[in-house]
């Protein structure tokens, strides 16, 4: 198999949209996430629609042993990953630092930083062995700016920004491209997860303007992945037209 994309967090939102776009472009896929039934349904749909092969692997990226052993258990042919989309991530809560829920902090740090590191540690070695690859990290506008009550989520995405730069330096001699994409507001399950299932509060985040859709980000990730071999997009900010920066959204 010549073209394989491994997408973490493919059960919803941006990751799921990336799975559709990469399948449409003829990529075979390794899809991961915790919700196995969603992975199974998506794999069948993409196989039927695009005639691509899809492997699924269900694990929690916070669990170091599970993450490493599930990835290493993939059959050898799947380890020829050409594109890794490090997408699995989340926000929990939106509270001032002095009132923050410490469990939420640990969930965000363990998922957005440590989970991304565990996956990258395994897959970067596959790419080195294959002599090529492209790692695309999901940062955020929250990795470029800090907004009120965003404290720990913003810190995790600033860490992704730093890791993205570090990975690019370390993997340079191996010919591996490293890119970060930093979206503004994208309407996915993100806010429902942030507000722990409060759909009304989540809906309000996107009221009065047109946010990005997951597919807008996925198509841009495809643009990044489909540049010629000598071209790398290091870093990209992508915003809804109605959003100027983290804290300024024009709600008409
Ligand atoms: P969604 O909530 O829609 O999707 C998040 C995905 O991450 C799901 O597939 C989920 O799968 C997976 N995930 C979360 N926690 C874990 C875990 N512990 N182990 C494995 N998989 C996990 O959100 P988005 O699509 O919006 O978010 C995707 C990425 O984009 C995140 O990194 C987010 O921070 C970033 N982002 C989002 C923006 C937005 O406005 N929506 C803007 C900027 C960046 P499952 O629950 O099945 O495990
Ligand atoms: C998600 C976008 O502005 O909620 O990363 O942090 S924001």
UniProtKB/TrEMBL annotation:
The protein's matches in SUPFAM superfamilies, at most eight in alphabetical order, are given as:
NAD(P)-binding Rossmann-fold domains
Q: Would the keyword Nucleus be found if you checked this record's keyword annotation?
A: no
- Give one GO term, molecular function aspect: oxidoreductase activity, acting on the CH-OH group of donors, NAD or NADP as acceptor
For this UniProt record, the keywords arranged alphabetically read as follows: Oxidoreductase
Q: Where would one find the signal peptide in this protein? A: none
The record's annotation in Pfam families points to: adh_short (PF00106)
Show the CDD domains listed in the entry. SDR_c5
UniProt superkingdom: Bacteria
The record's section on InterPro entries has:
NAD(P)-bd_dom_sf (IPR036291), Sc_DH/Rdtase_CS (IPR020904), SDR_fam (IPR002347)
PANTHER family for the chain: ALCOHOL DEHYDROGENASE
Which protein family is it in?
Belongs to the short-chain dehydrogenases/reductases (SDR) family.
Instruction: Give the protein's recorded name.
Output: SDR family oxidoreductase
Q: Which organism is it from?
A: Mucilaginibacter rubeus
């Amino acid at each position: 198999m010549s073209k394989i994309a491994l997408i973490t967090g493919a059960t919803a939102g941006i990751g799921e949209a990336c799975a559709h776009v990469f399948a449409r472009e003829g990529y075979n896929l390794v899809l991961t996430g915790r919700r196995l039934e969603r992975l199974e349904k998506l794999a069948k749909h993409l196989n039927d629609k695009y005639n691509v092969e899809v492997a699924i692997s269900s694990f929690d990226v916070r669990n170091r042993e599970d993450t490493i052993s599930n990835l290493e258990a993939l059959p050898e042919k799947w380890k020829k990953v050409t594109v890794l989309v490090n997408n699995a991530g989340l926000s929990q809560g939106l509270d001032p630092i002095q009132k923050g829920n410490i469990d939420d902090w640990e969930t965000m740090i363990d998922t957005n930083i440590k989970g991304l590191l565990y996956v990258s540690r395994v897959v970067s070695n596959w790419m080195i062995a294959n002599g090529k690859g492209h790692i695309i990290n999901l940062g955020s506008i929250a990795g470029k700016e800090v907004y009120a009550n965003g404290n720990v989520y913003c810190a995790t995405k600033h860490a992704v920004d730093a890791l993205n730069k570090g990975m690019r330096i370390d993997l340079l001699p191996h010919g591996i491209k490293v890119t970060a994409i930093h979206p503004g507001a994208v309407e996915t399950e993100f806010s429902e997860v942030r507000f722990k299932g409060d759909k009304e509060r989540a809906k309000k985040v996107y009221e009065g303007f047109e946010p990005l859709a997951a597919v807008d980000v996925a198509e841009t990730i495809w643009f990044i992945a489909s540049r010629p071999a000598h071209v790398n997009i290091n870093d990209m900010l992508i915003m809804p037209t109605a959003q100027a920066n983290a804290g300024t959204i024009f709600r008409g």
